Amino acid sequence: MLDADFFRRWMTVTAASVDREAERLTALDSEIGDADHGSNLQRGFRAVKDALEKEPPATPGAVLTQAGRLLVSTVGGASGPLYGTLLRRTGKTLGEAAEVDRQQFAEALRAGVDAVMKLGGAAAGDKTMIDALLPAVDALGESFAAARDAAREGAVATTPMLARKGRASYLGERSIGHQDPGATSSALLISALLDAGPGDAEAGGGE
Amino acid sequence: MSEVSDEKLVGIVLVSHSAAVAASVAELAQGLSGAGASVPVAPAGGTGSGELGTSAELIAAAAASVDRGAGVAVLTDLGSAVLTVKALLAEGDELPGNTRLVDAPFLEGAVAAVVTASTGADLAAVAAAASEAYGYRKV
C-alpha cells in the first residue's frame, strides 16, 4: 500500500531528479521553447519539497493537492498550471484515504492526466508531456518499472513529432527532431516513483 | 488603479507575462474610456520577482482587489497566463466566486471591457463586449 510518506518521498525524489536534470531540460527547451523549463520546474519542486518537509500532510491526497497548488503558484511558466493540475486533480481523486494501492493511484493519475489534456487542449501525438504521461498511466497498473519504461519511451518518441501545442508549435516543421522538454520532465516524474519505494509487490493492486 | 464606487461594477483583471504590459494596458483602457476611471481595474503582470512569466499569487491578489460583488472579468495575453487562470478556476478556490476568464484580444478587449463595465453592465455583458473585440477589423 502507498501512504502519505510514499507520496512525499515521490515529490522529494522528483525534486532531486529535476535538480540533477535542470540544465538538460533547459537545453531542450532552448531548442524549441523559451529556455526556462529546467529552472522553472526546479523552483517549483524545491518549494514543494520544502513545504512537505516542514509540515507533512496526513494523507496521499493531501500531499498531492498541496504539491499541485504550490506548483501553480511558484513555477511561473506554463508547466506550473499543467503539472499543478496533474497533481492537484490526482490528489483530489484519491480523496481522504490514509493509504491507496497502486491500482487506485493509477486511476487517480489517469484523472489527473485527463484534466491536463482538458486544460491545455493537447492530445496524444501533439509533442507534449501527454506523450509520456498517457503510456505511463496505461502501464502503471502493471508496475512502477513498466510505467517508467513507458514514460521514457514516450518522451523519446516525441523527437520526430511536429509540435501542435505551446510555444514550440509556432516553429512548425522546425520543431521536428527535438525531444519535447515537457515529455522529458514527465518521464522524470514517473521514474521517481520507483526510487520513492516501496517495491511493486508491496504497492499492491496488480499482482 | 481603481476607485471605490457605490454602484457595484464588474472588476477587470489584466494578466500579462510582462508587468509593464499589464500596467500600461490597464492605464490605457481606463484612459481611453473616460468614465472608466471608476471601474476597478488591476494589472497582474510578470512573476512575483519581476521577471517575464505568470504569478498565480499576483492574479489572485488582483482579482480580490477588484471584486465589488458584481463579478470579475479576467483578460490574459497567452500561454501560461491563460493556463494559470484556467487552472485556478478549475481546481482552486483562490479566486472570487464569480470570476470568469474572458476569451478576448488583450488590448482591444481590455478597452471594451472597461467601457462596458463603466456603464454598470453585468459580467456576461462585459465578457461579451470584450470577446466582440476579436471582430474589430483594421483593414
UniProtKB/TrEMBL annotation, chain A:
<dbReference type="InterPro" id="IPR012737">
    <property type="entry name" value="DhaK_L_YcgS"/>
</dbReference>
<dbReference type="InterPro" id="IPR036117">
    <property type="entry name" value="DhaL_dom_sf"/>
</dbReference>
<dbReference type="InterPro" id="IPR004007">
    <property type="entry name" value="DhaL_dom"/>
</dbReference>
<feature type="domain" description="DhaL">
    <location>
        <begin position="5"/>
        <end position="195"/>
    </location>
</feature>
<protein>
    <submittedName>
        <fullName>Dihydroxyacetone kinase subunit DhaL</fullName>
    </submittedName>
</protein>
<dbReference type="GO" id="GO:0016301">
    <property type="term" value="F:kinase activity"/>
</dbReference>
<keyword id="KW-0418">Kinase</keyword>
<dbReference type="Pfam" id="PF02734">
    <property type="entry name" value="Dak2"/>
</dbReference>
<dbReference type="InterPro" id="IPR050861">
    <property type="entry name" value="Dihydroxyacetone_Kinase"/>
</dbReference>
<keyword id="KW-0808">Transferase</keyword>
UniProtKB/TrEMBL annotation, chain B:
<dbReference type="InterPro" id="IPR036662">
    <property type="entry name" value="PTS_EIIA_man-typ_sf"/>
</dbReference>
<dbReference type="InterPro" id="IPR039643">
    <property type="entry name" value="DhaM"/>
</dbReference>
<dbReference type="InterPro" id="IPR004701">
    <property type="entry name" value="PTS_EIIA_man-typ"/>
</dbReference>
<protein>
    <submittedName>
        <fullName>PTS fructose transporter subunit IIA</fullName>
    </submittedName>
</protein>
<dbReference type="Pfam" id="PF03610">
    <property type="entry name" value="EIIA-man"/>
</dbReference>
<feature type="domain" description="PTS EIIA type-4">
    <location>
        <begin position="9"/>
        <end position="139"/>
    </location>
</feature>
<keyword id="KW-0808">Transferase</keyword>
